[in-house]
C-alpha cells in the first residue's frame, strides 16, 4: 500500500512539472499567431508566477481545512482548466483569463505534497519526488514539439490537459491509499499554525531569504545559460548554445538522483553543505577564462549537481527544525519565496548583463550561493530546540 501511495505522489509531482515548460517551447509560434513581441511571454510567465505565489500563501489554510489528497485533485483540476483555456485562446489577452487557474493550481499542490512527504517520508523520498517534477518538465517540450509538427501549438496545451486529466483520475481512485496516514494523529493538520505564527519562529525568515537566494540562482541558470555561451564563447553555434541550456537542468536531476541514495545516511544539513561546495566548484569552472566551451559546460553541469539537493533538503527539514504543526505554514512560505526569487531575479540579471556584460553571470551565481549557505547557517543557530510537536 505504501509503495502504491508513493507511486501516486510521484505521479502527482510529474503533473506539477508538465505545464511549466509549455510556454517556453510553444511561445515562438504562439507569438506569431497573436502578433505580439517576443518579450510579451514574460508578462504571461510573471502572471502565472504571481497566481502561484498567492496559491502557496493560502496553502497553509487549505492544508488545515482539507486533506492533502483533496488539495491534490482540486489543484490538478485547476491546472487542467488553465491548460484547456490556453488551448482555446484566440488572442493574447485571453491568456490572462486562464493564467488564474493555471497558476493557482501549482502553489497549493506543491506546498501540500512537500509538507506531506516531509512529515511522513525520508529525505531520500523527498529527493526522488523532485526528480519526478523534472520528468514532467522534460516531457512537456516534447509534447509541444509533436503538436507543432503535426497540428498547432493549441494541441500541445490540449494534449497536456488530457494527460493531466488522466493523472487526476488516478489520484481520485487512490483515495483509499491515503486513509492509513489520514487516520493517524500525526496527519491531523487542524491545529497547524498559520503564516503569521510561522513568521515569528526564530530562524524562519533567514531560511525564507536563503530559499529565495537558491531559486534566484537556479532560475537565472535556466534562462541565461544559452545566452552566456553565445556571449562569451566565440565560434559556438546558436544550435549548440541552445542545447547547452539543458546542462543545468540535467545536473539538477543527476544531483537529486545521487542525493536520493545518500541523503538518509548524510542528513539534510550535511547534504546542503556538500551541495553548495560542489556548486562553488562548478561556478569556479564557469568563471575561469579557459579556452573553448567544454570547461564552462562541465561547470554548469557540476553547478546543477551541487544545486540539486538544496531545494528538497530545505523543505524536508521544516518539520524537524520548526515543529510539525508549523511545517505546512513554513513550507507554504518557502514556496512563495521560491517563486519570488525565480520570477524576478533572472529579470534583474538581464538588466545587469545588459549594462555590464553577460560574463558577470558566474559572479552573480556566486553571490546567491554565498547568500544561500550564509543565511542557512545563521538560521541553524537561531532555530528553536528541536521538537516533534
CATH 4th-level superfamily of the largest domain: MFS general substrate transporter like domains
Main sheet specs: none
CATH architecture descriptor name of the largest domain = Up-down Bundle
Q: What's the CATH class of the largest domain, please?
A: Mainly Alpha
Note poorly predicted spans: none
Distinct helical segment count: 18
Amount of beta strand: under 5%
What number of structural domains do the residues give?
Answer: 2
Could you say which structural class the secondary elements and strand pairing correspond to?
mainly alpha
String of helices and strands: HHHHHHHHHHHHHHHHHH
Structure description:
The protein is an all-alpha fold and 389 residues long. It has 2 domains: 2-184, Growth Hormone, Chain: A, CATH 1.20.1250.20; 196-382, Growth Hormone, Chain: A (Up-down Bundle). It has 18 helices and no strands. Helix 3 packs parallel to helix 5 and helix 6 packs antiparallel against helix 12 (247-266). The longest helix has 30 residues, at 327-356. The chain is globular, with a radius of gyration of 20 Å. The two termini are 27 Å apart.
Helix and strand topology:
Elements: H1 2-17, H2 22-34, H3 41-65, H4 68-88, H5 92-120, H6 123-150, H7 153-173, H8 175-182, H9 195-199, H10 204-232, H11 238-243, H12 247-266, H13 268-287, H14 294-307, H15 310-316, H16 318-322, H17 327-356, H18 361-382
Helix pairs in contact: 1-6, 1-7, 2-6, 3-5, 3-17, 4-5, 4-7, 5-17, 6-7, 6-12, 10-14, 10-17, 10-18, 12-13, 12-14, 13-14, 13-15, 13-18
Amino acid at each position: 500500500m505504501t509503495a502504491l501511495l508513493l507511486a501516486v505522489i510521484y505521479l502527482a509531482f510529474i503533473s506539477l512539472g508538465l505545464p511549466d515548460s509549455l510556454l517556453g517551447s510553444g511561445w515562438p509560434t504562439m507569438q506569431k499567431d497573436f502578433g505580439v513581441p517576443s518579450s510579451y511571454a514574460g508578462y504571461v510567465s510573471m502572471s502565472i508566477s504571481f497566481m502561484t505565489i498567492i496559491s502557496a500563501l493560502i496553502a497553509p489554510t487549505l492544508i488545515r481545512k482539507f486533506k492533502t489528497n483533496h488539495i491534490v485533485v482540486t489543484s490538478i483540476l485547476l491546472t487542467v482548466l488553465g491548460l484547456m483555456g490556453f488551448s482555446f485562446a484566440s488572442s493574447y489577452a485571453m491568456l490572462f483569463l486562464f493564467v488564474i487557474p493555471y497558476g493557482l493550481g501549482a502553489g497549493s499542490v506543491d506546498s501540500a505534497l512537500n509538507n506531506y512527504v516531509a512529515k511522513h517520508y525520508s529525505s531520500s523520498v523527498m529527493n526522488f519526488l523532485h526528480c519526478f517534477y523534472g520528468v514532467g518538465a522534460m516531457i512537456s517540450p516534447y509534447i509541444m514539439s509533436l503538436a507543432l509538427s503535426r497540428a498547432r501549438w493549441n494541441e500541445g496545451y490540449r494534449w497536456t490537459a488530457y494527460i493531466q486529466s488522466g493523472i487526476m483520475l488516478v489520484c481520485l481512485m487512490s483515495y483509499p491509499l491515503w486513509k492509513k496516514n489520514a487516520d493517524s494523529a500525526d496527519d491531523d493538520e487542524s491545529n497547524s499554525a498559520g503564516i503569521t505564527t510561522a513568521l515569528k519562529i526564530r530562524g524562519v525568515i533567514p531560511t525564507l531569504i536563503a530559499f529565495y537566494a537558491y531559486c534566484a540562482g537556479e532560475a537565472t541558470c535556466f534562462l541565461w545559460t544559452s545566452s552566456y555561451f553565445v556571449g562569451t564563447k566565440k565560434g559556438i553555434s546558436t544550435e549548440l548554445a541552445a542545447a547547452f541550456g539543458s546542462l543545468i537542468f540535467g545536473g539538477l536531476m543527476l544531483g537529486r538522483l545521487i542525493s536520493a541514495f545518500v541523503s538518509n545516511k548524510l542528513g539534510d544539513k550535511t547534504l546542503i553543505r556538500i551541495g553548495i561546495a560542489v556548486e562553488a566548484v562548478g561556478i569556479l569552472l564557469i568563471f575561469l577564462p579557459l579556452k573553448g566551451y567544454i570547461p564552462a559546460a562541465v561547470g554548469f553541469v557540476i553547478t546543477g549537481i551541487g544545486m540539486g539537493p538544496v531545494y528538497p533538503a530545505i523543505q524536508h527539514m521544516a518539520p524537524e527544525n520548526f515543529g510539525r504543526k508549523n511545517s505546512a505554514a513554513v513550507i507554504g512560505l518557502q514556496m512563495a519565496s521560491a517563486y519570488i526569487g525565480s520570477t524576478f531575479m533572472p529579470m534583474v540579471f538581464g538588466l545587469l548583463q545588459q549594462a555590464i556584460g553577460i560574463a558577470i553571470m558566474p559572479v552573480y551565481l556566486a553571490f546567491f550561493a554565498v547568500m544561500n549557505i550564509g543565511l542557512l547557517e545563521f538560521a541553524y543557530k537561531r532555530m528553536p530546540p528541536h521538537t516533534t510537536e
